[in-house]
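Hey, resending since the last one bounced:
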Amino acid sequence: MTKTEHKSSIQTSKNESLVNNDWHIYIIETRLGHWYTGITTDVTRRFNEHEKGFGAKNLRGKGPLSLIFHIKVGNRSQASILEYQVKKLSKIKKRAWVLEMKNNIEMHQS
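The structure tokens again:
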């Protein structure tokens, strides 16, 4: 594979991730009650990676972990923006946001 071929395959995967509308935001709680917020296209796979010690360094050795919330948010750009906004919230505001989101989901499912 030439440098050009390798570069174009990387670009294709980047473009696919931007077009993919199956991105989720998720929140994991550690055994000490700390929350970690992330984004992924596969919540189950990503949570399993965190449990096995792969992924975010600040979750390593802090298990057991609990997946407390996840929701599909659209494409990668939308997910990244929401992740940034949620990470800026205080813990109290983040808890309120999760509760509000869960209530909205329940209302739409009724």
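Residues 1-13 have pLDDT under 50 and may be disordered.

Sorry for the duplicate.
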